[in-house]
Amino acid sequence: MNARSLLLVFLLLATANQELHSQFGFSHEIGVITGPVAFYSDFGQRNDFETNKGNVGIGVGLIHYINFSYRADCNCYTRDVYFNDHFKIRNEIDYHVTNFEHFGQWVDPDRTSETADQLRAMKGKSRVFDIGTQLEYFPLSIRDFAAGGYKIAPFGSFGVHWVSFDPEVYSELGPLNSPFTTPLPKYRDAFQQEGDSTWSIVMSVGIRYKLSPLSDLMLDSRWQYYFSNWVDGLNPSEEFNGGFPVPENKANDWIYWLNIGYIYYLE
Length: 267
Prior knowledge:
eight-stranded antiparallel barrel; two-stranded antiparallel sheet
């Protein structure tokens, strides 16, 4: 599914939510987010600073909130119950792109082996779209924050996103899966060039800063774990290479996304 289709789905869901929930007096917020995405993949050395610093992309997103604390139909607060004053539903569509290469001790300049040369020549790229929903929790009163009682409101969230990814992996030495370009047998059939989809879980913590009665700045620190190890297009494993051990490949792909956003309250 391409970006246009996902954007259309998101807008339709947001519009449907707004029409449905306005009948019950809920209010809505919309916003944009952007920031660097650290992609933890099968490129590079595990737990290596150069790898974590090198394989970083950029992401953007559109977000829509259902705010239970305020009634849009009467411009008044809803019934004072704990859920209304501490939870919001966050609908979101995101897009991020990351370029990959191998970092770490196995490709250090002093490594002169054929395997080191092959790893240095191996490159990748992944374009990722996802759409989903999170339940966002505010430990402080949402009403008090909206009324200007305090400038900063911390939050945490948990949710599920559907993910569409389009990976690309290549070698500057030539076609992959050749003994001249690929460390065999470890990386045999470890590549995926076709787009695919999966699910993911999303957890984040962050803060909102009150700019005006109808707008906030947001800083969001997110961890997102994919239910697939092919999102980056690379997955060396015993299942595909004939049983050669790959002990470092212990988890699916995941990202850490630090983003800043602007939120506007719809009247």
